[in-house]
Amino acid sequence: MRGPMVSGVINQLLTTTDWGELDYLVIDMPPGTGDIHLTLCQVAPLTAAVIVTTPQKLAFIDVAKGVRMFSKLKVPCVAVVENMCYFDADEKRYYPFGKGSGTQVVQQFGIPNLFDLPIRTTLSSSGDTGIPEVVSDPQGDVAKIFQNLGVCVVQQCAKIRQQVSTAVSYDRSIRAIRVKVPDSDEEFFLHPATVRRNDRSAQSVDEWTGEQKVQYGDVPEDIEPEEIRPMGNYAVSITWPDGF
C-alpha cells in the first residue's frame, strides 16, 4: 500500500486503538523514508527516534536519509544501534563487515549515543522463541547493552519533554490565531478565515485529483476554530465549525 491508503490505515490504527495507560509506546518502523514514516511522524507526537544500522557503507547512506527526514520533521535522534557489529572467538574480537558506520552516523549528525550489538546465535534465537535475551540471560553482556539503551532513551526523552515547543492557540479577545515562536519571545497572529481557506489537508483537498473541496466563498469572514491541538512534533490540527 502507498499514499492515501497507507495513511488511512495508520491513522485508524493510532487513533482508534485503545492503547491503555502507557509509559512509552515503541514503534518499530521499516527501513527507508516512505509513506509509512512520513505519516507516523505527522500523526503521532513522536518524542524521539533510535536509529538502527549495520556496519556496511551502503547502510550508512540509507540511514543518513532517515536521520535527515527525522530532522526535517522535528523528531530528535537520541541514539544509534549498530547491529551485527562483531563477534568474539579465540579470545579475539572480529569485525566481519568492517568498522565505522555507526560511529560515522554519530559524528556526522551529532547523535549523542552509540550502542554496538554483536553477532550472537543466542540473540538470533531469542527472536525466534519470543523470549528476549534480557529475560533469558539478564546478567549477560547483551542484556546489559539493551538495559543501557533503555536507560539512555528514557533519559533523553525526559530532557526533550522539558524543552519548550511552539504554542498555537486561539485568542478570542482579538479573534486571531496566536503562534508563539519556540525559544524566543516572538509571536505572530493569523486570521482564522485565511487559515481555513488555505487548508491543504485531505479534508479540504481531494488527494487523488488535487481539487479544492472548500471554496473561498464557502468560508465566512467571522469563522472561529472550535479546537486546536498538537499533531506530531511540528504541526497542529484545527477543528472548524463546518465539521473539518
UniProtKB/TrEMBL annotation:
GO BP: iron-sulfur cluster assembly
Record-linked InterPro entries: GBBH-like_N, GBBH-like_N_sf, Mrp-like_CS, NUBPL-like, P-loop_NTPase, YlxH/NBP35
Record-linked Pfam families: GBBH-like_N, ParA
Keywords: ATP-binding, Iron, Metal-binding, Nucleotide-binding
Gene Ontology CC terms, in alphabetical order: chloroplast stroma
Domain Gamma-butyrobetaine hydroxylase-like N-terminal: 183-243
A GO MF term: metal ion binding
Protein name, as recorded: Gamma-butyrobetaine hydroxylase-like N-terminal domain-containing protein
